[in-house]
């Protein structure tokens, strides 16, 4: 796939810079040439069900997709006055964009329509590790920072895709600095097909980023950016004024 410098520059809006991992341009060159939908076979990640239940003694049915709970973490880089985001190609997001274009009678969107901005996150599918430990591993795998467990704080949790899944995502936050950067880390696990770009979003750009509807972003990221803004304002630019009484 041929991409111009102008194409690539347009993917770094709001003062975002690429920190590490696999850039969007590199991923686009690796994707393709085909993308097709097939009926789902056995999956280790999701299971579709119809739930048969009763309301007022009458039978009702609800269709759902069982999925793993997950963790997500807001990483605040105080030295650089920026937030760490991850960007990756999400096949489901691309297919939704494709369907919307079909319905509107528009041409197929470019593959760039399938890239999303997210918190560093991961599904909870590893037995024996608690939520914080899983979060720590995800930070290392996706973003390349080695953050001590006692520097990772719980924020809250929410239910994702409540109409079709309802799985819980637990949100954490951590302040990071360059001393925690691990040279070999970040970008995701190649053997899992992960190609993740680690981005820095300046704190000063958070508001325009949140309201830019041309940017595909997760609900957890939106919430966390609002939370961060409020906290920095309340504590004169510090996320955790005293580590001992973090939240
Ligand atoms: N549906 C699927 N089909 C095929 N392979 C799959 C799959 N889901 C996961 N995988 C495989 O499992 C690997 C690990 O996934 P992660 O734990 O990094 O979760 P992910 O970042 O995709 O979603 C995390 O981040 C997003 C955004 O916050 C949350 O919605 C989500 O719950 C959270 O786990 C993926 O790289 C992929 O190989």
From TrEMBL:
PROSITE patterns attached to this UniProt entry: NUDIX
Entries under InterPro entries matching the protein: NDP_pyrophosphatase (IPR004385), NUDIX_hydrolase-like_dom_sf (IPR015797), NUDIX_hydrolase_dom (IPR000086)
GO annotation (BP), single: nucleoside phosphate metabolic process
Span of domain Nudix hydrolase: 66-223
Keyword terms of this UniProt record: Cytoplasm, Hydrolase, Magnesium
Reactions mediated catalytically: UDP-sugar + H2O = UMP + alpha-D-aldose 1-phosphate
Any one annotated GO CC term: cytoplasm
Membrane-spanning parts: none
Main location: cytoplasm
A molecular-function term among this protein's GO annotations: metal ion binding
E.C. designation(s): 3.6.1.45
Domain of life (superkingdom): Eukaryota
Cofactor(s) the record lists: Mg(2+)
Subcellular compartments: Cytoplasm
Function: Hydrolyzes UDP-glucose to glucose 1-phosphate and UMP and ADP-ribose to ribose 5-phosphate and AMP. The physiological substrate is probably UDP-glucose. Poor activity on other substrates such as ADP-glucose, CDP-glucose, GDP-glucose and GDP-mannose.
NCBIfam families: nudix-type nucleoside diphosphatase, YffH/AdpP family (TIGR00052)
Record text on subunit structure and interactions: Homodimer.
Name of this protein: Uridine diphosphate glucose pyrophosphatase NUDT14
């Amino acid at each position: 796939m041929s991409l111009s410098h102008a194409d690539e520059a347009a993917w770094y809006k709001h003062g975002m810079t690429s920190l590490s991992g696999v850039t969007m341009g590199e991923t686009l060159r690796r994707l393709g040439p085909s993308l097709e939908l097939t009926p789902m076979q056995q999956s280790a990640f999701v299971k579709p069900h119809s739930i048969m239940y009763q309301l007022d003694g009458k039978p009702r049915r609800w269709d759902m997709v069982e999925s793993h709970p997950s963790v997500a973490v807001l990483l605040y880089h105080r030295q650089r006055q920026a937030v760490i985001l991850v960007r990756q190609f999400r096949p489901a997001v691309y297919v939704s964009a494709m369907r919307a274009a079909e319905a509107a009678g528009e041409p197929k969107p470019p593959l760039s329509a399938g890239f999303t901005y997210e918190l560093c996150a991961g599904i909870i599918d590893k037995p024996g590790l608690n939520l914080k430990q899983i979060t720590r591993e995800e930070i290392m795998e996706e973003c390349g920072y080695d953050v001590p467990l006692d520097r990772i704080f719980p924020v809250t949790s929410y239910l994702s895709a409540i109409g079709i899944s309802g799985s819980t995502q637990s949100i954490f936050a951590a302040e990071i600095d360059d001393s925690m950067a691990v040279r070999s880390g970040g970008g995701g696990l190649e053997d899992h097909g992960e190609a993740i770009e680690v981005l820095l979003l300046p704190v000063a750009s958070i508001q325009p980023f949140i309201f830019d509807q041309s940017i595909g972003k997760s609900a957890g990221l939106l919430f966390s950016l609002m939370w961060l803004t409020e906290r920095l304002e309340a504590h004169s630019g510090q996320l955790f004024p005293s580590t001992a009484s973090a939240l």
